[in-house]
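help with this record:
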Amino acid sequence: MRREELLGFQWEGRKFPLIDNQLGIRKPQGMTAALSILTTYTSDGARAPYEDAVGQDGLLRYKFQGNPNHYTNVGLRRAHELGVPLMWFFGVQPKLFLPFFPVWIVAVELAELQVAVALEEAQRHLRVDGPVSPIERRYSERISRQRLHQPVFRQRVIQAYETSCAMCRLRHPSLLDAAHIIPDRDTRGVPAVSNGMALCKIHHAAYDQNILGVRPDLVIEVRADILAEIDGPMLKHGLQEMNNLSLSVPRRRADRPNPELVEERYEAFRAAV
């Protein structure tokens, strides 16, 4: 959703903004609790994606708006006390946000000037005031990754590649994925645009299965045995003709594939050939 849509939202025929024009927390006049929280877009080059956003319990954190007694922060605490849901708008590009609803404030951590946020019902029942078992932490981290990090990563990558497959230039959004260069199961597989490529589903699968790879010079290389195969038009046009084509990359240099990650992934491709 675009910023102007959120600010111009209409309810019962009247303008009712879903976000604050200047603040990250929206607490409308006359309402007891906060209505929404907002995370502005920050490029990967400015900070590590989601750095310090996940606690030891696997729950996401959201920082207070300045003074803990500011009315917006009081609204967050009231949302916690009342157990009411909020909306979370997460920036994927300047003035473009991905909405998450419902989310809940499940703990207020005054010493750290932050609150803990649950993305689904299951996280609401996790312990946040003491040690968490490794199983609970992994479970909570998986929810945070699947419900927020992966959708945000996908949107950021697709936007950076202008809704086009980096290999075949297909422009159907429903057929595009955000492919990791270094898999997200790896500790270095961060959800940064520079660790991703927008690929159509067939080229994403082919990349993951080492049917094709990307050289450090960003040229596509198709496996030799695949080039030697004889089959139908999909093999010929969809895979074999990708060989030696240059990858299409984002306009912003910070969004382009990280050379070190590309080289590492290419070595893994070569080892699998």
